[in-house]
Amino acid sequence: MKIVRDGLEIEMTPEELYAAYLEQQHSFDVGDVVKELQSVADEPDTYDASEVQAAEKLLQDRKALDEIADAKRARMTRYGTPWLTAVGDAVHEAIDRIAQSNIS
Fold first, then answer.
1. Residues 6 or more apart from 64 whose CB is under 8 A from it?
2. Which of 13, 60, 67, 77 sits a CA distance of 20 to 30 A from 97?
3. Quick count: other Cβ atoms within 10 Å of Cβ 53?
4. Which residues pair with 10 in a beta bridge?
5. Taking the model in full, what pTM does it have?
6. How many CB atoms lie within 10 A of CB 38?
7. How does pLDDT run across 39-60, given as a tens digit for each residue?
């Protein structure tokens, strides 16, 4: 694949193109996670206070967002879990883990 930027032409190797694809896919996965966590944080009447607090805490933790995104992608890749189920499961598992650790 060739990219032209500011008059400079760069050709990406297949390996570079695949790495860029994976990076963009991860970015989209993190975005999905953020949206799901935000939906929990924005619904205090629907979720327990501990779940809302856990979602808010996770939204501030970039490493946690990356890990949840990886868990979402793993569910989809390894088990064929549908996208919506995978993101919901990964997010709510992380929320439950944080909420339980705050109780203990």
1. 58, 94
2. 77
3. 18
4. 3
5. 0.88
6. 13
7. 999 999 999 999 999 999 999 9
